[in-house]
């Protein structure tokens, strides 16, 4: 039977509820000095604010080595009443030092499988997805290595693979590798950040493969794509791909949290949801926030 692997155990997809399909409760990278998401109190407040807006589930895409604080996730989920899904996987090479990467050579898929089936470190918290990343309009050797390991772990466990697309680019290259060369079923792949590259043709081609398409996070400075996102969602819905769409807030810095004065997780339901209801209707937006993530992240675990 298909189930979503949360930090408190496996749950049926119908129990997930209104879901932020891509976000971070904890995250730290040398690329974002001083903006780490490390505070348990701030994570608790963010979940409470999300819950107040009607949120019921958060899928955390923070992968290996970037400050997941896995042991803190179960009590946060229990206290807030919000389902939380943790991730294994590996981000782009620039987020790690050479010693960390060297220590994973030859055993990356093994690490992914262990964190999906046994647990993350000593926490015992099992990951519910595999997160990897592409490059800007292409795939370097690191991306190919991590995606090969992710595919191996998928074949061993059934887990969904989520992909950070750099500025929303490289979607078709990712699908060629994961679903073509490596044999991952497209419906087990989630492409992230498609809102950052509003290429409707590429969106349509990616959707035709059968993968899920995530529109996650407000525009960054000088990347003014927010106003185009509803049109992209409507174009996909009109083409019959409404069941492949996901939404997320992707909070990656302390300043971006709602408790820090930024949009944070509540922005997804407070501002993005009504904007999309205006574009595509309440029924579709409701399904995108509930039924779609339920299917995207529920797998028959092996």
UniProtKB/TrEMBL annotation:
UniProt: Zn(2+) 1 binding residues: 22, 24, 131, 250
InterPro entries (alphabetical): Metal_Hydrolase, Phosphotriesterase
Cofactor, how bound (note): Binds 2 divalent metal cations per subunit.
Family according to the record: Belongs to the metallo-dependent hydrolases superfamily. Phosphotriesterase family.
Protein name: Phosphotriesterase-family protein
Residues involved in Zn(2+) 2 binding: 131, 164, 193
Residues with N6-carboxylysine modification: 131
Keywords noted in UniProt: Hydrolase, Metal-binding
Domain of life the protein comes from: Bacteria
Pfam families associated with the record: PTE
Cofactor: a divalent metal cation
GO molecular-function terms, A-Z: hydrolase activity; zinc ion binding
